[in-house]
Amino acid sequence: MIEADPGSFRDVAGTVFHVDGRILRTVGKAAAEDFDFLHDCGLLDELVAAGRMVDAWKVDADIRQDAHYVLEHPRLPFISYPYEWCFTALKSAALLHLDVHLSALDKGMTLSDASAYNVQFIGSRPIFIDALSFRRYRQGEFWLGYRQFCRQFLNPLLLRSLFAIPHNDWFRGSLEGIPTEELRRMLSPRHFFSGNILTHVVLQAALGPSDGGGLEISRQDIGNRTFPLSALRRMLRKLRTWISGLKPGDRSGTQWREYETFKSYSDAETGAKKAFVAEFCEAVRPAMLWDMGCNTGEFSKAALDSGAGRAVGWDMDQNALDIAFTAADQSGIAFTPLFGNAANPSPAQGWNQAERMGWFERGPAEAVLALAFVHHLAITHNAPLNGIIGLLISIAPTGVIEFAPKSDPQIQRMLQLRDDIFNDYAMENFSEALSRRARIIKSGTLEPSGRKLIWFDAREASS
Fold it and tell me: What is the CB neighbour count within 10 angstroms for residue 348?
């Protein structure tokens, strides 16, 4: 079966196709010469060997008559988007993009755009995925993707660094990123003491609104002026130095970042949870596991250490995600922590509501962890228990769920500012509803908290 990727329509140089599990890409005649140079100059092999770019090789495939030739790429384990990345992940992706561009200039090439969607993650490692973004460098040309880089990398980072505002919701609602002229309106006089902000925000905003369409600085903008290669390299390096030093502006501890302080169970119970997860993963050995409410990733790590192939974690707490991403990066585990709200997950959106996939279009996973997760949906968002069970089974057919009794101190804190209208929130109701949809393989109770761990398998519900 041949199916065009709905997100590749923007690139006139070539279209991505899914063909019986393979990832193929047509290359038009106009782009073929640049790709050949990318290969022949050694840049492709260099970036692939360094783990900075996905491989691309020519194959015989009859997909489209207008294709000069066809490339094949390795299939990535998971697709995510910039509006799902935490600050640390976005920063890592921005630095990769700049490094790839600098390497390209060393080989006589440049990048035709600066889209954040050209970066994906394998675990916590960013990787460049668009071989057709490279073209021969023309002496004296300006960086045509500069404003796009600012919209999709720099401005979202500055939003959190300067104003302690996460970029995710804004970026999700504006898929081309955060316009520089809008960020400029948020600046106060003290920000004008920064030369970087003056250059990349204030002066750029003075150029007027960008159209958000990608190549946002035109030849009409720069007229007949030239931009020496040395100046372009210097600009990229200065941007890299500045971005590498950016930090979130809200690094003070929150309840969820300081989870070890606020959790309502003991270290012994934490150990028991890890042992339960480890037993599950040793038996199931899922190739892909989703960790719902992953926090700092300690249970994803336990799963990976015990037989899970890869893990994708979802959480709403930005500081916890930054910690999780940094820990995964330092340890090299196959864990990708992402920003996500199960009560309002990323939808399918963009052109024809298909350009960017929704949460569940990127599943199902082979297993799911839902630890300290159910009560947040049930108590905070009034989600029905049966609906939560349906959600988790739709994510993966098997997994581990934790259920906290209403007497749990964490739930009691959640109920301090609202009436207790949750008459159905009880272990027996949850167990009965789950048993109608799945087989309970094993359960256990954490003492003294009374939290219950349940290993379920919906594939065996009728056995």
Answer: 15
Beta bridge pairs of residue 349: 356
CB 55 within 8 A of CB 38: no
How confident is the prediction for the chain on average, in pLDDT? 92
End-to-end CA distance of the chain: 34
Closest CA to 390 of 404, 377, 408, 372: 377
Q: What's the sign of the alpha-carbon dihedral 314, 319, 323, 328?
A: positive
DSSP secondary structure letter of residue 380: I
Query: Among 34-43, 256-265, 354-363, which is the least confidently predicted range?
Result: 256-265
8 class by beta-carbon count within 10 Å (0-12 exposed, 13-18 middle, 19+ buried):
middle
CA 213-219-220 angle, to 5 degrees, is: 95
- According to DSSP, the residues that pair with 335 across neighbouring strands are 311
Per cent of the chain over pLDDT 90 is: 86
111 and 118 Cβ atoms separated by less than 8 Å: no
3-state DSSP assignment of residue 311: strand
Nearest in space to 323 (alpha carbons), one of 258, 243, 240 = 258
CA-to-CA distance for 445 and 295, rounded, in angstroms? Answer: 21
Q: How far, in whole angstroms, is CA 284 from its chain's centroid?
A: 26
DSSP code, position 75: P
Give residue for tokens 């109770």. Answer: 445
Q: Which token pair is 8? A: 């590749």
- How far apart are the C-alpha atoms of 360 and 165, rounded to whole Å? 27
Query: Of 336, 330, 340, 164, which Cα lies nearest the Cα of 247?
Result: 164
Strand partners, 289: 311, 367
What pLDDT, in 10s, does the model give residues 358-380? Answer: 998 999 999 999 999 999 999 99
DSSP 217: S
> CA–CA separation, 143 vs 135, rounded Å?
12
| DSSP one-letter string for 342-353 | TTSPPPPBSGGG
Prediction pTM value: 0.94
Residue 211's SS3 state is coil
